[in-house]
Design goal:
Layout: E1 4-7, H1 9-13, H2 23-35, E2 40-45, H3 58-65, E3 72-76, H4 80-89, E4 93-99, H5 102-109, H6 113-129, E5 135-141, H7 154-166, E6 171-176, H8 183-197, E7 201-206, H9 213-223, E8 227-230, H10 250-259, H11 268-273, H12 275-281, H13 290-294
Parallel strand pairs: 1-2, 1-8, 2-3, 3-4, 4-5, 5-6, 6-7
Helix pairs in contact: 2-3, 2-12, 4-6, 7-8, 8-9
Length: 326
């Protein structure tokens, strides 16, 4: 079974970092991520530079990324103008932020949930009227709970998903943008989403804020989800949702999936090597991940028997229980 790992670091990862990553470094980083085997990358956000200076170069980033063979390029758009810019730059997919929490949605895009659904309908009409092949995606944020409102009605989340499908959205996923989800909830809600939407049911965007990220991934897989978002080095989070740190670490996710016999097509050592560009461009920025620190397990093999794992370096010296070399 194949699982699509959708890398969101260049957008979701960078959006909450105040220091601006140089355009050239972003382009090198995206190319390095693609070279590791990632087939889908959310490369930027078409928001007004006044609100998010980090994304002022979105057009340049998209235009460069679409030149990478075999890569599906995503861009976030908050409104119709952003969609026009993203489509003009050549983005293959656009993702529109909309939260199930009214308070989160107002803080993020200054609209009610109902107004956001109408806005998404306008983006779909723009796409259709232009004869564009650009796909429109929505990941319903705060679907599992909200730091501003607390519990969010599962029935309301499903109603939103159905409404979004009716107005022309190609794919609707669920996002734990604040790290509130638990595995039982994730399994239940994605099973319901797939039952409601069929082929329009999208992927899982899960945070590790409270340490539940990879457990929730397994629950999503059990429910039939085959697309999982993650951010290299676990950077990022939503700046409009208090405490929403902790994106799933892409390197750890790939190791988990491959260890479970699920094919990602990603070279772990090449993926880890791409971190060096982040460290160089954003010195001092915390970079997370267990696999980059500890390495893969002895005898690790990729799920696809046609691919052989060749370690980039010798395994670290084994330690005894006291932490000293054995």
């Amino acid at each position: 079974m194949q699982v699509l790992v959708s890398e969101v670091g260049p957008r979701d990862g960078l959006q909450s970092i105040k220091r601006t990553m140089p355009t050239e470094a972003k382009q090198r980083w995206i190319r390095a991520l693609a070279a590791s085997g990632l087939r889908e990358i959310e490369v930027g956000s078409f928001v007004h530079p006044k609100w998010l200076p980090q994304m002022a170069d979105a057009e340049d980033i998209v235009r460069d990324a679409v030149q990478i063979p075999g890569l599906t390029v995503l861009a976030l758009v908050p409104n119709l103008k952003g969609a026009q810019r993203a489509m003009a730059a050549g983005a293959h997919k656009i993702t529109v932020p909309i939260a199930a929490s009214q308070l989160h949605n107002m803080a993020n895009v200054r609209m009610t949930c109902e107004e956001s659904i109408d806005a998404v309908a306008g983006i779909c009409r723009l796409r259709d009227d232009a004869g564009s092949k650009t796909e429109v995606e929505v990941g319903i944020a705060s679907a599992f709970g909200c730091t501003r409102e607390g519990r969010v009605s599962e029935d309301w989340v499903m109603e939103m998903a159905v409404r979004l499908a009716r107005v022309g959205v190609d794919s609707i996923g669920l996002s734990d943008s604040v790290g509130y989800a638990n595995p039982a909830q994730v399994r239940r809600m994605f099973r319901r989403l797939i039952s409601e939407l069929g082929s329009k049911a999208g992927g899982a965007h899960l945070h590790n804020t409270r340490g539940q990220g990879l457990a929730n991934v397994v629950a999503a897989l059990d429910a039939g989800v085959t697309t999982i978002d993650a951010s290299q080095a676990g950077i990022g989070g939503c700046p409009y949702a208090p405490g929403a740190t902790g994106n799933i670490v892409t390197e750890d996710l790939v190791f988990l999936l491959e260890s479970m016999g699920l094919d990602t097509g990603i070279d772990i050592d090449k993926l880890v090597a791409a971190r060096a560009i982040l460290a160089e461009a954003l010195p001092g920025e915390p970079l997370y991940g267990h696999v980059p620190d500890a390495g893969v397990t002895k005898g690790f093999a990729y799920a696809d028997p046609a691919r052989s794992y060749v370690p980039a370096a010798e395994p670290r010296e084994a330690c005894n229980s006291a932490g000293a070399p054995a």
